[in-house]
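Q: Fold this one first, please.
A: Sequence and structure below.
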Amino acid sequence: MASFQSLLLQPCCSSLQAAQTSEFDLELQPRDGPPIPCHKSLLRARCPLLQIERPCISVDEDHGVISLLLEWVYCEKIHFSGAGTGQGSQRVDEASARGSLGLGLAERTLRLAAKLGLRDALALRERLYGNWRRRSPGCLSQDLLRSFQEHSLDSLWFLCGEPGASQDCKAVYGGFLPLLLEASNYFAAMLSGKWAETAHEQVKVCWPAEELERLLEFLHGGRDFIRDAQDLEKALRCADFFGLPVLVVHANQWIADHLDSKNASQLWNFVDGEPRLRLKQVQDSGLHADFFVDAEDACFDFHVREFLALAWPDADSEADEDCWVPLHDLSPSLMQRLLCSGSLDVSTERLKAIVLRYARAKWDKSLAKVHAKQMMPPNVLFNRDIRDQLLGAATMSIRAVL
């Protein structure tokens, strides 16, 4: 799967052919056609042998070859334009790579990549020649991170300080400006347009420096922003302030990847009460749907799959009806949802005992039986046995009518 950096840079790559040259700081002049604008810092990060001495560099190749290589440099993807052949635009696959046009273009693209020292030329070769057995990943994220850590991308710095703080601001390196513009609504509004603050190399941001440093490192391919459950609230606060859909996706993914029997119920409570985690707000963000892992669905599925591990005490504590189990952390509304689904593969008698234990852990003795009754059939489907009996009877009734 492509990195989220490559997905964020796709609009930037798409604009290379028709962009205003003021958006870029370097031009590659092919043997044919107009010069192709691009970003000097990204090419330097990805192609270290490229000698950049002037704002416009002559490249001894055709426009199509340079464009194909730049698409890989920006987005870690390729397609043959088929210009002048009547073929139209098509993604490279094994069949097209074996064609005469495909092989010629592929060989010339690889030759240019080697000349410029493209770091992930092997991965490019595998894409060009349709090698589906081995698909080495591109290294866009690694190249961005390396240059970010060396402060060799754009000359943008943020001066950070918390609102109302009297101490001096701390300078935080900004990194690659086009990536920030695509990732964040806040940065797009601040750093682009006629009144952009990019006229200055230092831009003041009222935000804790440690959080902004962590955020910018994450955006450039560094460590995860979320490193433990305590970081979830911090991540969502940053996502909300800076307008960062990718951070919302990251939070959902982190929760799904870190569910276990000890924390699953607590994390589900957090997800259920946190509207900022909803993925609807990022559907139009440009991130591919493969990146969307819904934490709500992941929590539900985990509880269905690991219900007994969450709900039943170990052998030593089984006789103690008041012993605590991880399921007791789950809110009553989510417990009701589990029971209403009819998805639990637990015997009816054992599930009744679990519900009674849960009710005693959540309510006073006088109310426990009342609430437990509301979580029993016929108020809920309860488990698979009862659900299958009901749905089986319904199916038979429909067949009889038909």
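Q: Good. Now the second chain.
A: Here it is, same layout.
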Amino acid sequence: MDIIRIDQLASARDAKILGKSSVANFLKWVNSADALAIGVENISIRELRWGKSPGKPSHEYLIMVLDHGALRAERDAPSWYSILSPNYRDKCEDTIIYKNTPEELLDHRDEVLATLHFRKGDVQVFHLALLLSAISEKADFYNVYTINCWWYTCCLWNNLAKLPHQSQYRFHMKIDWIDDGSIIKWNPIRFGRRMQLIHIGGVRRGIGADGHRVGRIVERVL
């Protein structure tokens, strides 16, 4: 079967998928008659890369390497109003960026914290679309303490990592500061959970007692 190249599809150009697009627009295109007829949902996701931009707070996102091309998924917000409270719900901006190579999706100062390689066909755009739809339905808001870019990246990573059997993927951590002495026992889902705990711990130290409520909010959403 020939590899489907998103950058060569007229429907992708017409839907303005090439470059930066909202998740809603991306899902509309993936589920369109033109995309379904071509089999876009069957495109394999061959690799995940957990990206991190420097800053305080840092920004995190997920790069997904396809058979040809790559996607970057992330959550942001138009303002910092949610810093007022863990219960404040700001509008979220969920986006997908398409580029021909994954390197184009990584800013020059960013780092990749971990990578996860899949066999062809084990994880597909179809699975990504279902997951993005579920997130949009159940957590369509942004809060700097809880449902933020860290949570979004972790949610995508952990759920996609659950699809294949452990023996059928290759996981590699590119950071050493997270190691607690059990690194050889880790798998990608443990890594994702550990990252989430690190972020929750940072919030607890920053805002005190409200940090425990942050943990409960994060744990009960997806």
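Q: Anything worth noting on the second one?
A: The chain has one domain: 6-220.
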